[in-house]
Amino acid sequence: MLKGSAIIGQSGGPTSVINASLAGIIDAAREFEGIENILGMRFGIEGFMAGDMIDFGKESAETITGLKHTPSSALGSCRHKLTDAELPKVLDMFKKSDIRYFFLIGGNDTMDTIHRVEEYAKEQGYELIGVGVPKTVDNDLFGTDHTPGFPSAARYIALSVMQAGILARDMQKVDQFVIFQAIGRDSGWLTAAGAAGKKSQADAPHILCLPERSFERDKFLGDVKRCYDEYGWVSVVCGEGITFADGSPVSASQAADKFDNVEFGAMGGVSVAMALHRMISDEFGFRGEFQITESLPMSAADRASPLDFEEAYMCGRSAVEPARQGKTGLMVTLEREPGSEYKCTTGTIPLKEVAIKAKPMPDEFINEEGNFITEAYLDYLLPLLGELPGYAKLSCNP
After folding, report:
1. Neighbours of 112 (CB within 10 A)
2. Nearest-angstrom CA–CA distance, 252 and 181
C-alpha cells in the first residue's frame, strides 16, 4: 500500500456545494490507513506552489461537518494556468511533504491540471495517485451525467426567472420586457433552467437565447414582437456566451482569461443582457429591465438543491475509493440509472478523456426553432432541483 500525505485543492469558480465534496474527501481519507496526513491547498495550485497549505488534522470535527452546507470555496480558489515550467516546482512541493495522494475539485481546466501533474510525476518516477472531483455550475464537464453545483445554480435561476416573471407580468404597463442573463460560456444548461418553473405559455420565460444556437437578430426581434402581441410583455433568458453566426459574441467584450476563455462584458464591454435590451428598445421603443446575477447562483446556499449537497458529498467520498485501490488518473462521475424514478450512483472516467473537453446541451433538449427547450430537458432537469414553489394567479392573468 502506498503511504503518505494527501492534499486537497479547489479550483475555478465556486458553487453552493463544493465544500460538501471537500468534507466528503476528508471524511473518507480519515478512514483510509494509507493516508497519514490530510493537507489543503490554499488558493489552489497557485497557492500550493508558494507553500500555502493547511493541516486538516487541526480542524475540529464540527468544522468539517459544517462544510457540508457552507457555500463558496473554503480553501480559496484560483484560475492559474499551470505551465510545463512549473511542473518541477509542484513535484518538489509534493516531495517535501511526502504527498502521495492528490485530489482536486473543479471543472474542465482543473481536470487538465490533475492530469498533467499526475503524468509528470509518473515520468519522473514519483509514485502519486491523482483523482479529480467534478464541480461546475455550467454543467459542461464531459463524462458525467451532471456536475455537483449545477442543480443548485439551476434552482437559483429557475426561482429567479419565475419571480422576476411575475413581477414583469404585473408591471407590464411600466416595463414591457425583462431580460435575465445566465452564466455559462459555451453551454446553455443554466439558461435553459430558467424554464423549469413555467406552468403555462404566458408564464416566464417566453424566449431562450442559448449558446448552442447562433443568435439571429431579426429572428429574435420577431419572437419578441410575437410574444408582446400575445402576452403584453416579454421575458427573455439569455446565455452570457451567445454568438452571431460568424462566432463573434453578442456582447461587445473580447477579453479573455488565462485559459483563453472569453470574459463577457469585461473591460468596459457591453453584456449580452445590455445588448439585447438596446436591440429591443431601439426596435420597438419599449421600456424594460435586465438582471445579471454573475456569481450569485454559484454561492446561494439558501436556494441550493438538497440533492446537490448529498451528491457533492458522495462524490468527495467516492474519490478516495480508487485511491484506496491504487488507481490514478481518474475523475469521479455521477451516473444516472435508467427508469422513471431518479437514482444516481458514482463511477469514474480517465482524466485524459475529460481534460479541456466540453459538454454542450444535446440537440434533443432544444426545440426546432432554437429558442426554447423540449420536454426531454425538463425530464432530465427537474429531478435535480427539488420541489419548486407554486404561486397564486388571479383569473385576470393568463
Report:
1. 21
2. 15
The pairing of beta strand 177-182 with beta strand 288-292: parallel
- How many C-beta atoms lie closer than 10 Å to residue 339's C-beta? 7
Mean pLDDT of 340-349: 96
Q: What is the DSSP letter of 298?
A: G
Using the predicted structure, report yes or no on whether residue 263 has a pLDDT greater than 80. Answer: no
DSSP structural state of residue 159: H
**In angstroms, rounded to a whole number, what is the distance separating the alpha carbons of residues 376 and 280?**
30
Report d(CA 27, CA 391) in Å as an integer: 41
Looking from the CA of 326 toward its CB, the CA atoms found within 13 Å total 4
Helices and strands, counts by H and E, the chain: 11, 11
From 158, 138, 171, 161, select the one nearest 361 (Cα to Cα). 138
**131 near 115, Cβ under 8 Å?**
no
pLDDT at 13 over 60: yes
Which active-site residues does the annotation give?
138
Contact 114, 102 (CB under 8 A): yes
For residues 4 and 374, give the distance between their C-alpha atoms in angstroms, rounded to a whole number. Answer: 50
H or E stretch covering 20: helix 18-30
Residue 267 pLDDT class (50, 70, 90 cuts)? very low
Q: Please identify, in words, the CATH class of the domain defined by 4-136+303-353.
A: alpha beta
* pLDDT the model gives residue 294: 86
Q: What is the CATH number of domain 150-301+360-384?
A: 3.40.50.460
**Residue 140 buriedness (CB in 10 A; 0-12 / 13-18 / 19+):** buried
Residue 53 pLDDT > 70: yes
Residue pointed to by grid coordinates 500550493: 48
Q: Give the Cα separation of 126 and 58 in Å (integer).
A: 28
Q: Is 157 helix (H, G, I), strand (E, B) or coil?
A: helix
- 208 with 322: CB under 8 angstroms? no
Task: Report pLDDT for 110.
Answer: 93
Answer for the pair 378, 385: CB distance below 8 angstroms, yes or no.
no
Cell, residue 139: 454543467
Domain spans of the chain, in order of start: 4-136+303-353, 150-301+360-384
Q: Give the mean pLDDT of 352-363.
A: 88
Looking at residue 362, what DSSP letter applies? P
Same topology, domains 4-136+303-353 and 150-301+360-384? Answer is yes
Rg, the chain, Cα only = 22
